[in-house]
């Protein structure tokens, strides 16, 4: 006998496998209890806003039936979803307020239909119809946006590219490129490439639940971006369908053909068109040549100094290059049960003290002599900054668990903890000040954990990635978050940080964009949008949107 | 007693110091005589179109006197030039047909005035006035464009940035950047940086007579771009004055702030606005760590194979990385008097034969262990392709004479030789075919020297740079060139080459742009131009121009 599973909000808001629930270990619980002051070890707290009810979408489908009929004729009934659960699933990404709303059993930005086109010609037809009928389209990959990039405030079509437009098109082993459809997910693309002896080198934190098209649309960065580059450095060409037609360019290693309009689609977050395919760089996959190291510093400033000296040292680039500030290091040590161990005591004895020490993770790929040189150089540079190599095991472990942390968000939110991240990029000259002032802002909330790492490193600056865990105001969790988030963004901007290094703008950061880039650049962005999308149907309300939705 | 020097066409068309004349050595003359079939050793040929007359510009200044008066009030009389010679000097760049026209004593695209603003506020005022009065502006650095990027077919203002807007604004030794005004020339910028222990790493062939603003406007590349990147990889931020106002961005190592409009000014060739300043990356200048090598291969295919294997080898990047095809190698050997020497005979004896062998030049900068590793890897990779290291001297010599070849153009043209270059970029998969077919096209002209090198190298492809020397049809030299050039561009495009890797489009390649990038991209370019420059005053006729002027 078949059991029909209840389709809940919880299944939508969970990261990864909707049925998987992460259970916090005792070490994690103990750390939370100590740092955030919430009793989780002895007391069995009730789950905060569990979202276990069956999904009901209040806003009914508002598209006229004749439109639905036409779309059905284009893609076939099997490629259109209309259930409340499916509409809710395609209504939002993973921004904190979106997760809160799902826990509160609210679906505020549902599409009318979820359509999965079979091929590019259907994408073209759907856009033409939507443009004619002024129906909004939100192009979607695996919806891991953390900046409210997904959603249709006034309804429309969620255009799902993952069901059919997910194929490898061409592997060019001479020029080292792969051409694939935008809906292919990270693991499928990487698996194909690894089998052929290559890697795409792009591993965002959302890797398992992200797509090629999403990487490009959000201008993402992978964990190994210091060596392999951000997605804008990796994409060679792309194809995008827009209300005014198809945009497609040829691949060149570089060119000078006037002002290049194709990069406009990188970082456009679906507001200019639907990216259907792209050609990206690939590299030889030589895991046996990989060299890993982990170095501990006495404080974050020393780790930063070493990182800066390395990246400006002109001796080649590591691929993974990451430092955690003292609090992130402390939390990691506690959560992994390292604190108080024999090794910990040994480190403390030689001056690497809790609440001050800072970890650096390094992984270098490529030719084996090159990987040795870069690792050795980083180690010797680090020594000058008081760094001490603690072997390659912590980094190997980090690599093996690299996509796990996302799974901890739900159990932490279950405890009523505001659990979120924010990231920015900044020039080296402003980095220390930004870190200090943003940290001070976050720590101004009582009982708040504020962890920071630098994970994308450049000669001229780096990103800063903050994670915070803080008891929420359970009576008004959304308002509590919004107020805190607004101050946080303002603090970043007033300390010369960018609005985002690799998450994009979406609707979460759009209210700050005009001020950030200036009136003229903003108007030019609007002008470009008006040319490509004259009826404003492409992911409306995202990126270019001065009101805070 | 002062002698008033006659101001001739010749002084304008000469490369470098207008009074300097390169004299061809006997080895060069002998090579020309043998390869092009023109008797230059024994016979004293009359100079072909010497351009020694005093400059007279037929088109008189057409701006109403009240406008001239207003401009004079803005910048002062000492910053406005109106003589025929000055107008002719600022009327064109160094495209072959422009040089021919000067030799024919024609000035077809003169400005009415040459204005040198004192500061940015004057740039702003001048653009405002020109926009109001619909007067064209051609922003100018040192006018080394080889794609007809300079010129005012219907008159207007040549806006010279080199006289006053040539200062260093700020050196940031923490973030490794320098901010400078656009009119600073290459040597001045590099000298400043070297004194502080840095390098800009950007050395285009025109280095001595090029400016920061020109590098950016033309999307240029330097001889060390394989290591340091093209200018679009080096620029972090810029400031541009346009008819609708000022565009300026902040420097970030990378960011994801929606679709980024500021890169549109890179490669816009003055058609969107006037770049007045930019912040670019700098690197530590460590000439003692530099490692040079020169390797000879039995043929160009082997050199290509080795170059591709090196750049895809993931062992770091050389900075200068350059191979010459068999004909360029042959001509260099002959012109330098190497052919027939003892060393030549030794090389021939072990299989490196004339008319087949191919040279590779390498220079690596940075950390000393890194430079050793990269040089060693290139040498060992080259061995697999039959390459033989012939020491570092040829590369050192090449570096010391790196900017000389431009001076040979005039004496060659004096002989009635069509002497020009064209460059493109192409993916590795198409590179061999493009080289072969373009070469075949060029060699279809009787008695024509066709030399090719690859000098900007990427994991996914490279540029190809062709130089040709060919007896011109002296009865119709311009028509002869135009017909040949058109077929040449068509051949490049039909072999999957880009319109340009680093020279840009100008008016010389603009007729091909729409077909190359497609109708929609072209219309979007036009749309962007209309937003920023609604009256079409910025360098009109360049880049976006379907007719061949």
From TrEMBL, chains A, B:
Q: Which InterPro entries match?
A: Alkyl-DHAP_Synthase, FAD-bd_oxidored_4_C, FAD-bd_PCMH, FAD-bd_PCMH-like_sf, FAD-bd_PCMH_sub2, FAD-linked_Oxase-like_C, Oxid_FAD_bind_N, Vanillyl_alc_oxidase_C-sub2
- Domain (FAD-binding PCMH-type): residue spans on this chain: 107-285
Gene Ontology BP terms:
lipid biosynthetic process
Q: List the residue(s) that the UniProt entry marks as the site Important for enzyme activity.
A: 322
**Which prosthetic group or cofactor does it need?**
FAD
* Residues at the active site: 465 (proton donor/acceptor)
Q: Which GO terms describe its molecular function?
A: alkylglycerone-phosphate synthase activity; FAD binding
What keywords does the record list, in alphabetical order? FAD, Flavoprotein
- Positions with a binding annotation for FAD: 139-145, 269-275
Q: Which residues bind substrate?
A: 409
Family designation: Belongs to the FAD-binding oxidoreductase/transferase type 4 family.
Q: Name it.
A: FAD-binding oxidoreductase
- Tell me what organism the protein belongs to: Flammeovirga aprica JL-4
């Amino acid at each position: 006998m078949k059991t029909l599973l209840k389709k809940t909000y919880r299944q939508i808001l969970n990261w990864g496998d909707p049925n998987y629930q992460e259970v916090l270990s005792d070490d994690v619980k103990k750390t939370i209890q100590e740092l955030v002051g919430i009793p989780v070890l002895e007391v069995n707290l009730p789950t905060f806003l569990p979202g276990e009810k069956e999904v009901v979408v209040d806003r009914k489908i508002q598209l006229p039936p004749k439109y639905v009929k036409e779309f059905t004729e284009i893609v076939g009934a099997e490629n259109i979803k209309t259930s409340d659960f499916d509409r809710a699933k395609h209504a939002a990404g993973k921004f904190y307020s979106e997760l809160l709303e799902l826990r509160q059993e609210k679906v505020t930005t549902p599409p009318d239909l979820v359509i999965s086109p079979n091929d590019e010609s259907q994408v073209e037809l759907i856009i033409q119809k939507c443009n004619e009928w002024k129906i909004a389209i939100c192009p979607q990959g695996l919806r891991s946006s953390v900046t409210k990039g997904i959603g249709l405030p006034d309804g429309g079509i969620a255009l799902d590219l993952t069901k059919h437009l997910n194929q490898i098109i061409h592997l060019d082993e001479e020029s080292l490129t792969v051409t694939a459809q935008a809906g292919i997910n990270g693991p499928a693309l990487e698996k194909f490439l690894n089998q052929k002896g290559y890697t795409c080198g792009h591993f965002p934190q959302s890797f398992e639940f992200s797509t090629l098209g999403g990487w490009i649309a959000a201008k993402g960065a992978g964990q190994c971006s210091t060596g392999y580059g951000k997605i804008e450095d990796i994409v060679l060409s792309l194809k995008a369908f827009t209300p005014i037609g198809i945009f497609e360019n040829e691949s060149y290693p570089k060119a000078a053909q006037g002002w290049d309009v194709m990069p406009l689609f990188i970082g456009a977050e679906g507001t200019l068109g639907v990216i259907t395919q792209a050609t990206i760089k690939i590299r030889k996959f030589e895991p046996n040549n990989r060299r890993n190291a982990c170095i501990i510093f006495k404080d974050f400033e020393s780790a930063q100094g070493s990182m800066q000296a390395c990246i400006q040292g002109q001796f080649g680039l590591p691929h993974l290059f990451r430092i955690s500030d003292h609090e992130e290091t402390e939390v990691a040590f506690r959560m992994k049960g390292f604190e108080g161990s024999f090794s910990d005591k040994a480190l403390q004895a030689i001056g690497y003290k809790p609440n001050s020490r800072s970890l650096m993770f390094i992984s270098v790929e490529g030719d084996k002599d090159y990987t040795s040189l870069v690792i050795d150089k980083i180690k010797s540079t680090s020594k000058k900054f008081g760094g001490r190599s603690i072997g390659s095991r912590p980094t190997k472990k980090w690599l093996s668990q690299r996509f796990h942390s996302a799974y901890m968000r739900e159990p932490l939110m279950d405890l009523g903890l505001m659990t979120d991240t924010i990231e920015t990029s900044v020039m080296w000259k402003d980095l220390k000040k930004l870190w200090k002032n943003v940290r001070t802002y976050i720590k101004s909330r009582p009982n708040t954990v504020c962890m920071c790492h630098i994970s994308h490193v450049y000669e001229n600056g780096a990103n800063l990635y903050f994670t915070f865990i803080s008891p929420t105001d359970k009576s008004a969790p959304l308002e509590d978050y919004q107020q805190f988030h607004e101050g946080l963004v303002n603090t970043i901007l007033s300390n010369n940080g960018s609005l985002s290094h690799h998450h994009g703008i979406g609707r979460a950061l759009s209210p700050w964009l005009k001020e950030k880039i200036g009136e003229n650049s903003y108007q030019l962005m609007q002008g470009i949008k008006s040319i490509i999308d004259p009826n404003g149907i492409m992911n409306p309300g995202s990126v270019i949107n001065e009101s805070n939705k």
